[in-house]
């Protein structure tokens, strides 16, 4: 996750400083040297302070978000601490045609998945589940979700979910971690 967030800090710092090239006058001609020198001396402390404050604020937000994600992932289990959330987001694209993750989100072809962790299967209000899933008596803990995502038809024969499954255990770990982080927001 740090691979995604940390490179963006440099871009934010550059943007906070006003870019990499000095601005020119409206006529696109350089200002007299003494004016530029005076302007730089006057603006430099303010720009440096502003940039430092902006970078510090972003760093604090990133650290808080990483800590929040770490707590969420730790609650899933040790193997989820190394999950690749970017890959989880990519893997979730397969799911988003049928499912939403937002709190209060609507049901699509499949139910909204917000609040799914440790909840009983086939219990979302306003969604019509197959009788096979209702009778299965599942609780969506991490192990059950992993087995379901691997092959839903093998886990509960006759259910209506058309997804063929995700065989790669790392991809399943990543998508479960992504779902946990997204639904914890």
What does this protein look like?
- It is built from seven helices and no strands.
- 15% of the residues are buried.
- The chain has helices spanning 2-16, 33-76, 85-92, 131-136, 142-150, 152-155, 169-184.
- Mean pLDDT is 81; it is low at 20-26.
- It has 185 residues and is mostly helical.
The H-level CATH homologous superfamily of the largest domain, spelled out, is Cytochrome c-like domain
Please report the distance between the alpha carbons of the first and last residues.
Answer: 16 Å
Strand content of the residues, in percent?
under 5%
Tell me, what's the shape? elongated
> Which percent range fits the helix content?
55-70%
Give the CATH topology of the largest domain.
Answer: Cytochrome Bc1 Complex, Chain D, domain 2
Rg, rounded, reads 25 Å
What features would you highlight for this structure?
2 domains, elongated, mainly alpha, 185 residues, Cytochrome Bc1 Complex, Chain D, domain 2
